[in-house]
Amino acid sequence: MSGISLPVLMYHYISRYKGATAVSPEHFEDQCKGMAQAGWRGIGLTEAEAFLRDGAPLPPRSVLITFDDGYLDNYVYAWPILQKYGHQGVVFAVTERLETSPLLRPTLHDVWAGANPALPPVDAPMHTHSLGFAERRDLFFSWEEARHMEQSKVMSVAAHSARHLAVFAGSQWALPDRHARADLAQRFHIPGTRTNTFYQVDAPTVWGLPRFKERPALYARAHLPCPELVAAIRRLVPQEVAEARAFFQNPLAVAELEALLATWPSDRLVVPETDAMRHVRIQQELTLCATTLRRELGHKVASLCWPWGSGSSPALDEGQKQGFSVYYTTKMGANPPASALAVHRFKVRDTGWNWLKLRLELYSHPWLAHLYAACRL
Hints:
- By secondary structure, this protein is of the alpha/beta class.
- 37% of the residues lie in helices and 14% in strands.
- It is built from 13 helices and 16 strands.
- It has helices at 25-37, 45-54, 72-84, 108-112, 143-151, 184-187, 227-236, 241-248, 251-262, 275-297, 313-321, 353-363, 366-376, and strands at 8-11, 13-14, 22-23, 41-42, 62-69, 89-93, 126-128, 134-136, 155-159, 166-168, 214-216, 223-225, 270-272, 303-305, 326-328, 346-347.
- The strands form six sheets. Strands 1, 4, 5, 6, 9 and 16 form a six-stranded parallel beta sheet that branches. Strands 2-3 form a two-stranded parallel ribbon. Strands 7-8 form a two-stranded antiparallel ribbon.
- Helix 1 (25-37) packs across helix 12.
- The longest helix is centred in the last third of the chain and has 23 residues, at 275-297.
- The two termini are 20 Å apart.
- The model is unreliable at 178-182 (pLDDT under 50).
C-alpha cells in the first residue's frame, strides 16, 4: 500500500462538559493552532469529496475536520476557532434536530470582538426532571445558523440521517435471572436518568417494554414488538411518567410484569420486518434527510455520515438514489484516493496538539494508517 491518505478527524461535542465524545474549546483551539503552525490545513468538504470520490489531488498536509450530529457548541465554539486558524470543516447534521429560529446566537466571534455576550449554555447539557432524575438535553444549532456558517466558507453542513434512530434487532433482552433487580433500567424501558441524546427506537415503545437488543436503524433489519405484547404491557404498566416510575419502585408490580413476560411465547415477542418494509423505512429516512438539506441549504449534499458509523447495502442503494456519493464511518483506517464508499475517521481525544500531531502523520500514510488501525482493534 503506497501513496497518500487523507486523515479525517471525528469530533462530536466541543464543550467543557466532560464526556467520551467531548473535546474542550481550549483543547480544540490548541489542536487547531498546532495544525496551522505545523502546516496542516483543514480542507473544505468539496475539496475532500473530489479526492475521496474522484481521486483529485490534494495539497500536502491536508486534513478533513468533521463533527457529528449538529450540536450548538459546534457553532458557538468550533466554527470561530476553525476560522481563526484558517481551517475549514463539516458538520454532519441530524436534520430533524436542527432548530428553526431565525435568530443568530452569540459565538466566540462576538466575545473576541469585545461584545461580551452571554453565550448559549452549551457546557451544561444535564437537567433535572421534575421527578428528580437527570436528563441530557443538548442544544442544536438552527438552520439559519447553518446557512450562516456555510456562507462564511468555513463550515459546511452535510447529512447524518433525519432522526438518528436505532431499531430493535431481535428478541434478545436481559432476563431477570441474569441481572440484579437493581438493574431494572437495563432490562425495561422505564422513566429515569438519561445521559445520551440519541436514544429513540424506530418502533412502538412503552414503559415496561423489554430492552431488546438495539442496532443502528440504517444498518440492521428491524424487529417490531408484537402489538399484542405492547397492549398487554400497557394494561399492566401505567404510561404516565410519575405513575410508571412509581410502578418500577414497587417490587410486587415488577414481579407481575416479569411473570407476564416469562409466560409470553418467545416467538411472539417481536416480528421481523420484511424486505419491503425495510426498504420503505430506509427510503423515508434518507429522503427526508436529503430533501430537508436541499430545501434549507439551497443546494444538494453529497456526503452522508452513517449514524453510529454503520450503514448497509439497502441503505447504500437508497443513499445513492438520493444523491449521496461519499459515505463516512466511525472505523479507523486509511483514506486513499477514490475511497468514497467507506471513509475512515478517528476520534479525537480531549487533549492537546501533541497527541494529535503523531496521529496525523500516521493517518496520512496508507500503510501506517492501516497498520495502526489494525493494532487498535
